[in-house]
Predict the 3D structure of the following.
Amino acid sequence: MNDSIQTLSLEDLKAQAKRLKVTLLSEGTKISHSKSLELIAAQHGCRNWNVLHAKIGNQPTRPPVSLGQQVSGKYLGQKFVGEVLGVRTLGPDRYRLTLHFEEPVDVVTFDSFSSFRQRVSCTVNGRGKTYEKISNGQPQLELVL
């Protein structure tokens, strides 16, 4: 696999195949979508589309944030601004983050009781959202990316 596809997603490659098919058709050569996928695979140094697809799908994914980055978002429905203290890749599209909020967030909704958190750890996907939800169905933590 050549270096040019290291930054491409499957969606990018499929879009390339679609553009190739349209371009060839405008020049009088009609090909199937599968043939255009095969041509794109060959262009990127792969034997066929299945090999290219597997290589792209097996690339390590990147966390949505980096160590030391300033972030903002919502934690338990409350807005926060903070810093990323830790980032660990757990698997495809799963990242363990440790965040330190500038201002503590009250994690209790009762008026007569409070419990503040300033440092939290959570597991998020590549879009910066936790898999766990709060009672209204929203993610426990959601980063603004």
